[in-house]
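During the reporting period the student researcher (J.K.) took over the structure-prediction task from the postdoctoral fellow and processed the backlog of single-chain submissions. One of the processed entries is reproduced below for the supervisory committee.
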Amino acid sequence: MSTYIVTVTAVDRVGIVYSVAGTLRDQGGNILELSQTVMRGCFTIILAVEFPDPRTPHQLAEIIAERGKRFDLTVAVIEMKQEALEPPVPNGERFILTVLGGDGIGNIHGIAGCLAANGVNIVDLHARVDGTRFSLIMEAFLPPDLSPSTVRAELERFGRDHGLEAYVQHENIFLATSEPSPVRVGPAWKLQGDAVAPH
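J.K. obtained the following structure tokens:
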């Protein structure tokens, strides 16, 4: 089996997912995983697709674009190597991190820097600015020897100078206290002194 990562971007319109998924199906591809969002009217989807036979990334991108030409798709395809990839954070645990406060240039850069300096790997991130309010929520893997309190302290240190508050919660607690729903930015609260990230 051959696996490819497909990225498609276009002005948002009804039917893009249907077009892309149909093209991949007709080419014999099985979608293993996907993530899709619309940002400021721009549609973006990224898919992991498996084929029984090798495909040329350039030709596969052309087929997807041609079948969806009414959407004026921008398509990129890369082939995944067959060798097993070492996870960036071996034996890490998944946590939900939330940062809330005032908007400011460099917020995301500073937050990402705090995490990178401690070996934290971000696997899913959503951020939004509404007026002057900045909201960010992410899923991240913490190294097994890194405590959540250390991460929170680093984020709070950065936040003190930028009017931001940080909350860190283990995925299991997050799932146990939250209704099933996609991770998105929203209000945060604290429960008995523990950091709680919203859904």
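The committee noted the following: The radius of gyration is 20 Å.
J.K. will present the remaining backlog at the next meeting.
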